[in-house]
Write a structure and sequence with these properties.
mainly beta
Length: 163
C-alpha cells in the first residue's frame, strides 16, 4: 500500500534495514570473545554469519555459527574475515608460514618396550650441520633479546683465525 512495508503497516514504524547491509549469509567473520581464557589463545573466534538476532541483544546483534564448536553465538562485536589487510593471524596463519615442527624430547637413552628395554639412537649432528642455524640469546637486563647466527666453525680456539 503506497510503498509501505508490511511491518510499517502493522506497527506504524519504518523498519531499519541497515543490519542487513553489514554481512551476507554464510560470510566468514571474526567475533569478539567476551571472556577469553588466556591472552595467547586470542580474543576472537572465526565463524559464519547466519542471521540477525531479533529477540537477543541490541539492534545490531548477529547470529554467528562458530567454526570450532558449531554452535550459534549471539554477538554484536563482529567484523569481516574477508579483508586480507585485517586478517587475524592467530586464527589463520599466513600461507607462507608453516606450522612449527614438533619437538621430540628425549627423556632417556632407554625406553621400555613391553618387558624389555630398547636402546634408542640419539639424534646426531656435526658442527657443519649447525652452520647457518640461529638461536635466541638470553634476555638482557633492559629486556632486549638477540638472534645469533652460527656463521662458521672454529677448528682450534687457541690459533688466530681470519674473520
Amino acid at each position: 500500500m503506497h510503498n509501505r512495508t508490511p511491518i510499517d503497516i502493522l506497527s506504524g514504524s519504518t523498519p531499519d534495514i541497515c543490519v542487513l547491509l553489514q554481512f551476507h549469509f554464510w560470510q566468514l567473520i571474526y567475533c569478539q570473545l567476551e571472556d577469553p581464557t588466556f591472552p595467547s589463545n586470542g580474543t576472537e573466534k572465526k565463524g559464519q554469519f547466519v542471521g540477525v538476532a531479533d529477540s537477543v541483544g541490541g539492534a545490531l546483534t548477529y547470529k554467528i555459527l562458530t567454526n570450532d564448536s558449531h554452535k550459534i553465538l549471539f554477538q554484536s562485536s563482529v567484523r569481516s574475515a574477508l579483508k586480507t589487510s585485517e586478517t587475524n593471524l592467530h586464527l589463520e596463519p599466513h600461507q607462507r608460514e608453516s606450522s612449527p615442527k614438533p619437538i621430540n624430547f628425549i627423556k632417556s637413552l632407554r625406553t621400555q618396550d613391553e618387558n624389555s628395554y630398547v636402546l634408542h639412537m640419539l639424534p646426531g649432528f656435526t658442527p657443519d650441520d649447525l652452520i647457518g642455524r640461529t638461536s635466541l640469546t638470553d634476555t638482557q637486563d633492559n629486556g632486549e633479546r638477540f638472534r645469533a647466527r652460527i656463521a662458521r666453525k672454529i677448528l682450534d680456539p687457541d690459533k688466530p683465525h681470519d674473520i
